[in-house]
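Entry details:
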Amino acid sequence: MKLKSLLFASACLATALPAHAQDEVDIEEQEAIIVLGEGLPDTPAAPAYSTVEIDREQINATGSGRLDDVLLNVAGFQQFRRADSRSSNPTSQGVTLRALGGNATTRALVTLDGVPLTDPFFGYVPFNAVAPERLGSIRVTRGGGTGPFGAGALAGTIALDSADAATLGLFSGQALVNDRGETQLSATVAPEVGEGYAVVSGRWDRGQGFFTAPKDQRVPASARARFDSWSVSGRLVQPLGDALELQLRALAYDDARTLRFDGQDSTNEGQDLSARIVSRGPWQVDVLGYAQWRNFTNIVISSNSFNPVLDQRDTPSTGLGGKIEVRPPVGELHTVRLGVDYRRSDGNLEEVNAFSGPRFAGGVNTMLGFFAEDDVQLGDLLLTGGVRVDRSTISDGYFETVAAGRTEFADRADWYFSWRAGALFEASDVLRLRAAAYTGLRQPTLNELYRPFQIFPVTFLANAELELERLEGYEVGLDWLPVPGAKLSLTAFDNKVENAVANVTIGTNLNQRRNLDAIEARGIEASARYEAGTFSVLGSLALTDAEVRGSDFAEPLDGLRPAQTPELAASLTMSWRPSEGALFAATLRHVGEQFEDDRETDILPAATTVDLFAQYPLLEGLSVVGRVENLLDEEIVTLNRGGTMDLGVPQTFWIGLRYGF
């Protein structure tokens, strides 16, 4: 598969830079490019839902320079574990919003240029595949969704949009090193090609990592969290005529990590292709198709014998899908969206358990959806409403061992209905009121249905009988602009996920994925922004009361907080731009205490961290960059099982050069 990735990466470069690309591009002409390279714009009523925008400056001014770090500035965003994408198992990189967690699966729809990004088998987000410097903006919308691929937007949507050539410039790049000798290297070229442009970008991160085990828990087999990852992407944007545009994108990545013990290695790799045609004429149309090939390997080391006990040596999966969205011209007062989307995920697991021998598992999931939405402008009042009808199919599921033979699970299929509605009222020039209600759904992943796994000594069983998760929720909020440069947003919400999938303790060192009656989450989200001259302040806070509503089998869970779910999360960033190209920023984050498990037996203490960022121009286009992660060297507990702990990133200093941006 590594050879396949390298060949695919070469194809990315060849595809994105045709032979007729200009050898030299005038910078002024580069800035005049008018091709957008985006999808259709947001509908007028999009602000009726709780939304946070992250601009390019924020994206590229973090302490770590990693995408998951960028998203932590949105309070309420969380991965299953606090560890970042250098020192966690990739399968724990499921993301959610509004404390609707409980296991490691992604409950939010994460897209890159409109294409769902989550792994087809596991449902995790491959953060290392997306370099932040390639992005132009990020838009986080909380609450259930109905639009394209809305059946995956149970907790909300995280839309990643690539930067265009005018934003990137002809060439940009950076090279940084930290105090452990780890490096980050990236480069992007974005030449004008024909009437459009191409973007080719590559990034390579590598390092010896740090010891995740506390000093008093290290043994001779303890290892640093080594990491070695690269990604390369190519993008071509070309007009096909008046108001018609073609967008092609290719992505390849490979990511290798070592966790806690020598030999406890994991890899995840992928290759993605997508094609998109966007028409911005009277009839607005967005047609998208994509294909994804992914693989994951993992070796589990015993914490007693320090020998391999599980070799997950091959987990190939494929994701196929697409959408057609049409916005007909129905007059100035209405914005109508009509469409259909399709997603297919298939995958297989091949592994060797030291005790039970080889075992195999896999299946196929499909989701076919039809959606319609309408925004209506009535003076200062904007109303929006949308519906989806989805056909969910779970088929070809099996689990096989040498001892028990092959078990094939019955195919299942059914139709599901979901909806959302909202209102936006311009109460005055400085005050906007909003309200929304919605439902949503999420299909269990192939991983949840068929793949058992271990975090030694605990075994987690799959469950082929899992039902789809269903969400019901509502929210009310306001946006207040008291003075120029200031904005305060406040949202109160009540969300409930029925049939929530969680890792439920069913015996000593034995868990199984099961449907709870529900997870209920009520809370308040706040965000604030203030800009005055060269200074700016950004703040975000989420205060959530989340509880499990258990079934008969899980009666001890009733009223408990879901695993890995904090009550309080907050972020504050202060920035200063003393001159052109110069930027100094400090970010303070706090995450409240969480429970490791469903029974609230092991605690992950609260953690408060400070990150710093500085950029100062040396020559035209060239700047020196300094970054600090975890300035106060706070102990961040990312795993706690009976006192056996893993820790997050310690105090880390970075220095380097950056060109462009």
Observations:
- The longest strand covers residues 357-378.
- DSSP finds six helices and 40 strands in the chain.
- The CA atoms of residues 233 and 251 lie 4 Å apart.
